[in-house]
């Protein structure tokens, strides 16, 4: 989910650099073995002045990859580098990952503009960006963009590109970004799926930190309130969508989907009950309710006779039990729980998870 937002930030910065006549390279994580901080598709943009946007690790590789990017800008030739943290590699090179995994990073000069890709990142449909993993070639920036009903760009011959388009469309059903063998050649198929949405109903003082943490985690964020005076853009920032709506008009003004997560935080029992009615009729998989358990039970009890609903969607009190207090700490607990639910996890301490067999490097 962070992948979608990060790609938008990288492309926005690339457009600024290209408009100013400044060159840049893009490092893309194309393969992961074992445990790693980031997944395939993570990006680091390196401008020729040395500034960067994004990351491909937890901070242990960025300076090294930055140096590779600057060299790629000097030579104009793409490079593929592997990094891992096995004992032999650390002993030999004193450079490795902190996650006991191995990754491969493809670094290419950024030559082509990507305006159509940026447009798709503002939309709601999945798409793929395909590129050849070809090293040492001049440029190396050619891409083939593929969605359900269009393709743009070229990698090689029309016959080869048609095979790539077919393969990419088969992957849009929900697999992860990876290198695929297509017609005997390595093609990195980077998949983009619209991120989950967090809808906060109620724009009181605890809403801005919830919105801020959720944005950083990769959610699209919407804040709803029936009071226009509470929806001041300066309180939330330009990336948060603000929707003025009372409960009866909520379905008209906001489309809740199967990837929408809702936090009900109006601080008013009657208003919560007002909004809860349309929320229970939506496909939202997560409905968090601020307040103590007894309050949530009264709310559900008052609606139970007229609504049938899946109680597993209801999270009240909302948030993980972190023992926090105040708006910032409560917001952290709420966003953490939503992340866990979205990932199908229990939100437990990683220390307490049952150890899985180690994955051997391929």
Briefly say what this structure is.
This protein has 362 residues and is of the alpha/beta class. It is 33% helix and 24% strand.
Number of helices: 11
Q: Identify the strand order in the major beta sheet.
A: 13-12-11-14-15-16
Termini gap: 26 Å
Task: Please tell me what the overall shape is.
Answer: elongated
Features:
six-stranded parallel sheet; 362 residues; disordered C terminus; five-stranded antiparallel sheet; alpha/beta; Rossmann fold; 2 domains
Write structural notes for this entry:
This protein is of the alpha/beta class. It folds into two domains: 2-192, no CATH class; 197-342, NAD(P)-binding Rossmann-like Domain (Rossmann fold). Helices cover 33% and strands 24% of the residues. The protein is built from eleven helices and 16 strands. It has helices at 2-19, 62-75, 87-93, 115-121, 158-171, 207-217, 233-236, 250-253, 269-280, 293-304, 326-342; strands at residues 24-34, 43-47, 52-54, 79-84, 101-109, 127-132, 144-147, 151-153, 178-182, 185-192, 197-201, 220-225, 241-244, 260-264, 286-289, 314-315. Helix 7 links the parallel strand 12 and strand 13 (241-244). Helix 6 packs across helix 11 (326-342).
């Amino acid at each position: 989910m962070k992948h979608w937002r990060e790609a938008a930030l990288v492309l926005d910065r690339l457009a600024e650099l290209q408009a100013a006549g400044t060159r840049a390279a893009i490092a893309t994580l194309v393969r992961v073995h074992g445990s790693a901080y980031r997944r395939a598709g993570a990006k680091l943009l390196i401008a020729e002045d040395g500034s960067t946007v994004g990351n491909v690790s937890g901070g242990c590789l960025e300076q090294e990859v930055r140096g590779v990017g600057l060299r790629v800008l000097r030579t104009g030739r793409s490079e593929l580098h592997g990094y891992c943290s096995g004992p032999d590699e650390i002993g030999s090179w004193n450079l490795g990952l902190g996650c006991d995994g191995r990754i491969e990073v493809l670094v290419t000069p950024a030559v082509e503009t990507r305006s159509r890709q940026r447009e798709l990142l503002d939309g709601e449909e999945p798409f793929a960006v395909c590129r050849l993993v070809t090293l040492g070639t001049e440029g190396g920036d050619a891409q083939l963009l593929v969605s359900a009903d269009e393709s743009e760009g070229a990698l090689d011959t029309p016959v080869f590109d048609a095979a790539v388009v077919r393969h990419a469309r088969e992957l849009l059903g929900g697999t992860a970004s990876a290198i695929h063998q297509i017609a005997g050649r390595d093609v990195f198929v980077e998949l983009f799926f619209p991120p989950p949405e967090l809808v906060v109903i109620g724009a009181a003082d605890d809403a801005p930190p919830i919105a801020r943490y959720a944005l950083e985690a990769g959610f699209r964020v919407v804040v709803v309130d029936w009071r226009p005076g509470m929806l001041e853009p300066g309180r939330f920032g330009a990336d948060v969508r603000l929707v003025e709506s009372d409960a009866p008009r909520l379905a008209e003004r906001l489309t809740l989907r199967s990837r929408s997560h809702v936090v009900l935080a109006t601080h008013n029992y009657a208003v919560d009950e007002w909004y809860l009615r349309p929320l229970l009729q939506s496909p939202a998989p997560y409905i968090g309710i601020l307040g103590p358990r007894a309050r949530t039970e009264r709310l559900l009890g008052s609606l139970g006779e007229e609504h049938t609903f899946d109680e597993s969607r209801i999270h009240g009190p909302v948030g993980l039990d972190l023992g926090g207090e105040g708006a910032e700490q409560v917001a952290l607990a709420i966003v953490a729980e939503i992340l866990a639910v979205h990932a199908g996890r229990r939100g437990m301490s990683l220390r307490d998870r049952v150890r899985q067999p180690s994955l051997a490097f391929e």
